[in-house]
């Protein structure tokens, strides 16, 4: 999934590269552009604690179902004010439906996860924490981290086109899922 509103931007292209690699390896893939979807944030109603699914019926319903079924998920977001984008965070909160009343994950363990981020700050280490914190969430949910790909955009949505190393890394992470 892509949490950037910039279609064809850095995160979008890197996520696509991971998906292309996965397709090469025989995976069937589905790409979700969060910014083009209509959905609400978690309402904190706790319906999911007894019903096992989110009560909200919107464009995230299918995505959440696909995550439950998937062998691997690619999570992409730009860094917005030290964190992942708002579009991404609303999706993340809805993953609360994957957690049971004993605060254990309902997801089958061992799904692979890839995280992709892009940032403006030329200091690549500045926002390592955002991806690392989300990786912790994913591990808690039972995912195995297959890779974290982070880049600096130098102010350009096309910066990734100059980063053959990262495009290659993304494709190779995808094909080794
Ligand atoms: C609202 C907003 C907040 C941002 N906050 C940060 C930030 O805290 N740190 C940073 O390095 N870049 C920040 N950026 C820059 C983006 O992270 C950067 O342009 C990124 O490469 C965008 O990825 P994309 O091309 O996939 O959209 C921000 C950009 C926007 C629009």
From TrEMBL:
Top-level taxon: Archaea
Entry keyword Transferase: no
Keywords of this entry: Flavoprotein, FMN
InterPro entries: Flavoprotein-like_sf, FMN_Rdtase-like_dom, ISF_SsuE-like
SUPFAM superfamilies, per database record: Flavoproteins (SSF52218)
Gene3D superfamilies from the UniProt entry: 3.40.50.360
Stretches assigned to the NADPH-dependent FMN reductase-like domain: 2-120
Cofactors (names): FMN; [4Fe-4S] cluster
Family according to the record: Belongs to the SsuE family. Isf subfamily.
UniProt-listed PANTHER family: IRON-SULFUR FLAVOPROTEIN (PTHR43278:SF2), NAD(P)H-DEPENDENT FMN-CONTAINING OXIDOREDUCTASE YWQN-RELATED (PTHR43278)
Name listed for the protein in its UniProt record: Flavodoxin family protein
Organism: Candidatus Methanocrinis alkalitolerans
């Amino acid at each position: 999934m892509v949490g950037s509103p910039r279609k064809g931007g850095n995160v979008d292209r890197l996520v696509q590269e991971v998906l292309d690699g996965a397709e090469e390896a025989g995976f069937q893939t589905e790409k979700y552009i969060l910014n083009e979807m209509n959905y609400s944030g978690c309402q904190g109603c706790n319906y999911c604690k007894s019903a096992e699914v989110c009560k909200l019926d919107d464009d995230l319903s299918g995505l959440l179902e696909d995550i439950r079924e998937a062998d691997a998920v690619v999570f992409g977001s730009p860094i917005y004010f030290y964190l992942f984008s708002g579009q991404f965070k609303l999706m993340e909160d809805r993953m609360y439906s994957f957690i049971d009343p004993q605060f254990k994950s309902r997801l089958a363990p061992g799904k692979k996860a890839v995280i992709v981020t892009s940032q403006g700050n030329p200091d690549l280490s500045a926002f390592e924490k955002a991806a690392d914190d989300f990786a912790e969430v994913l591990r808690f949910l039972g995912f195995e981290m297959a890779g974290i790909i982070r880049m600096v955009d130098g102010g350009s949505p096309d910066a990734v086109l100059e980063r053959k190393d990262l495009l290659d890394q993304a494709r190779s992470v995808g094909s080794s899922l």
